[in-house]
Specification:
The chain is α+β, with helices and mostly antiparallel strands. The protein contains seven helices and eleven strands.
């Protein structure tokens, strides 16, 4: 396993992008069509934010907001953290771990180059998830099980839906959830994306 593999070799070099005025309904439909869990937000040719499935679930669906009236700009995370294209994938996981995120825009040469995700890295080098977790424990002095730092591996931790400790977390809709919450999250995501509310 080569932990020095640059993120440029794992990233999506054509990430989904939207205008901040796009409705959450349209954004969710586009994400579903592309099979991605996040998109970048551009305003006037400049990247101004990032939107993920987790944002939609927690800030819109769970809050009962109207997906046709809520815009991408309303719920996006502004000024997202980025990583240079020549940095390696282990460093990308370290950044994700430190900030509790799963998507990183990749930059190089003064421009956006793409986006790398935890999911893409885990497909290419699943062993790195444990390495990143061990590194975080050594350098930060915690085991990654607190609600402020989400564990990367599909192991024990805190469910992002109910907040309870679980021995096994499942990756559903860009959330790390316990088995009890997994089916509910799946059904909610499918209903909201496929029903008249979203599309």
């Amino acid at each position: 396993m080569d932990t020095r593999l640059p993120v440029a070799e794992t990233m999506d070099d054509d990430p989904l992008a939207m205008d901040p005025k796009t409705s959450v309904r349209d954004a969710a439909s586009a994400m579903q069509a592309r099979g991605v869990g996040g998109l970048l937000v551009f305003d006037g040719g400049r990247m101004t934010g990032i939107l993920t499935e987790r944002d939609i679930l927690t800030k819109v669906v769970a809050a009962g907001r109207d997906t046709t009236q809520t815009t991408v700009g309303d719920i996006m995370t502004p000024d997202p953290i980025t990583i240079p294209a020549d940095h390696d994938i282990l460093e990308a996981l370290r950044v994700m771990r430190a900030h509790g995120i799963r998507h990183l825009p990749v930059v190089g040469g003064g421009r956006l180059r793409g986006m790398v995700t935890e999911r893409a890295i885990s497909r290419q080098a699943p062993e790195l998830l444990q390495i990143a977790g061990d590194w975080n424990t050594i350098t930060n002095g915690h085991d990654g099980s607190s609600s402020s730092v989400r564990p990367l591996a599909l192991v024990g931790g805190v469910c992002e839906t109910c907040g309870n400790e679980a021995d096994d977390l499942v990756d559903v809709g860009d959330l790390m959830v316990c088995e009890e919450c997994a089916e509910t999250v799946r059904e909610t995501t499918e209903d909201e994306v496929q029903s008249p509310v979203l599309g």
